[in-house]
Design a protein that fits this description.
With 484 residues, this protein is an alpha+beta fold. The protein is built from four helices and nine strands. Strands 1, 2, 3, 4, 5, 6, 7, 8 and 9 form a nine-stranded antiparallel sheet that branches. Helix 1 packs antiparallel against helix 2 and helix 2 packs antiparallel against helix 3.
């Protein structure tokens, strides 16, 4: 009988020990899992940081290059300003002064291009950043709600745990006070077998209750630990999202500030640019009027120039071989009119004889502006022949008129003639600009030396002269190489 009682007590002790070991094991496992998760998170974070640093370096290098360009331009502008100040005292109105002023205008244009491109680039970054900020704000709000919800759940679990834990502590105190001897005594002091069995069942019931109570304590502890770990992860995620959002908002503010500063500089530069352009045009008109070396104003609107050039390139690219020559619709003809088809005899076919050209304005060979630049360094796609208004302008070689235009800007009244192809198969086109009147029509065949227009000063011109160009497959070349 005693042996049976002792076995019962031993079994109870084993239950308590096993439960205790399980709690310790669960805590160690949880700590190990947390450590592994932390290590993995740190590794991923370091890899992400490395990638961001590489990306950041690339952007910083690009920004440094841009700053160097701006610094170089500022240096050139300062030098131009200094030279203008020196020339103004004694040589204002000379070609040297005008050329220096034009170079300054060119530098300002470059500055404007850089700043405007930078603003476009920054605005693109802002447009990309704004949706990300909104998304992060939404995510941050959701995380904040999750954190609050989890905190409330933990508080509720802690309240439940507290009541269970207090009950368990009371039970432990009772067991400690009573001791194992009292339990054995309770069983051994029974007067009969009926009393013994009754007390035995009571002790079994109490032991079972104690085990369940301990199990509940253990479960509540594990649940709280799990919730707390979940809370910690959510808090960490929240703080990371908040830091990212704060960084994005700071970046957005800096970008917006940069655009504002650039816009102020652009506005100031445009005022200076308008003033300098007007001054350059005025001085150039006065100078060319004095020396009769008329040419074009050098500060025409770039968009107008681009529009005219695009139209010319489209026209040239549409030219067929001498066996099937077609032309664009003339500017003074209704849109949709039919193209003009010419015979092979109108133009040259794979012959360098096409390159033997006469001067476009007979008797006028002096050049006021050559190819490919003006004296200021700005691009000039042809050569200018100063001549009185009404001077004869002739076709430099046999060909067919492919366009006649009458503009109040750019080339003014101009004619283009297609002459066929040279020995390399390149299309050869000539252009005659700033005429006072045009004597030929679109699609008309002309002979070498035949008058096609009267010179003048229409469009972008400082005075009467003829602007002449030679183009191979649309690309401008030096006309002087082909005139004889």
């Amino acid at each position: 009988m005693k042996i049976r009682f002792l076995s019962l007590i031993t079994a109870l002790l084993l239950v308590f020990c096993t439960v205790g070991q399980n709690v310790v094991f669960a805590e160690e496992k949880q700590q190990s899992s947390t450590t592994e998760t932390t290590t993995e998170t740190t590794t991923l974070k370091n890899e992400s940081t490395t990638k961001k640093e590489k990306s950041k370096l690339t952007k910083e290098e690009a920004k440094k290059t841009l700053q160097e360009q701006q610094k170089e331009l500022e240096k050139k502008l300062a030098e131009a300003e200094k030279k203008l100040s020196e020339l103004e005292k004694s040589s204002k109105g000379t070609s040297e002064y005008i050329d220096t002023l034009d170079r300054k205008i060119g530098y300002i244009n470059e500055q404007l291009t850089i700043l405007e491109n930078e603003n476009v680039s920054i605005q693109a970054e802002i447009d990309k950043l704004l949706p990300s900020i909104k998304k992060n704000e939404k995510e941050l709000k959701a995380l904040s709600n999750e954190v609050d919800k989890t905190k409330k759940e933990i508080e509720r679990l802690e309240d439940k745990f507290k009541s269970v834990y207090e009950a368990y502590c009371i039970r432990l105190r009772v067991m400690y006070i009573s001791g194992d001897y009292n339990i054995l005594s309770a069983l051994l002091t029974c007067k009969d077998i009926s009393g013994f069995l009754t007390r035995y069942e009571m002790i079994k019931s109490v032991s079972k209750s104690d085990t369940e109570l301990l199990k509940e304590v253990r479960e509540k502890t594990a649940e709280i630990i799990t919730k707390q770990n979940g809370l910690n992860e959510k808090v960490a995620k929240y703080e990371k999202a908040k830091a990212s959002l704060d960084s994005q908002k700071k970046s957005l503010e800096q970008k917006q500030k940069t655009i504002e500063n650039n816009s102020e500089v652009i506005a100031a530069n445009k005022v200076t640019l308008a003033t300098d352009r007007a001054e350059s045009d005025r001085l150039l008109a006065e100078l060319t009027a004095q020396n009769k070396q008329y040419t074009e104003f050098r500060n025409e609107d770039s968009e107008l120039i681009a529009a005219v050039e695009n139209e010319i390139q489209a026209l040239i690219s549409d030219i067929k071989s001498p066996d099937e020559v077609t032309t664009a619709v003339a500017s003074d003809k209704p849109k949709g009119s039919s193209k003009v088809v010419t015979t092979k005899s109108d133009v040259y076919s794979n012959s360098d004889a096409v390159l033997n050209m006469v001067y476009p304005v007979p008797g006028h060979r002096s050049i006021s502006a050559g190819f490919p630049n003006y004296s200021s360094g700005k691009y000039h796609g042809g050569i200018d022949f100063p001549c009185p208004t009404g001077s004869r302008v002739v076709a430099v070689q046999d060909g067919i008129v492919i366009t006649v235009k009458r503009l109040n800007y750019s080339y003014g009244y101009y004619v283009m003639i297609y002459h066929g192809t040279d020995s390399r198969g390149r299309s050869v086109v000539t252009l005659y600009a700033h005429n006072s009147s045009i004597l030929v029509s679109n699609g008309q065949s002309v002979k070498k030396g035949e008058q096609i227009a009267k010179s003048g000063s229409t469009g972008n011109s400082t005075g009467p002269h003829s602007h002449f160009e030679v183009r191979f497959n649309g690309v401008r070349a030096n006309p002087r190489n082909y005139l004889s």
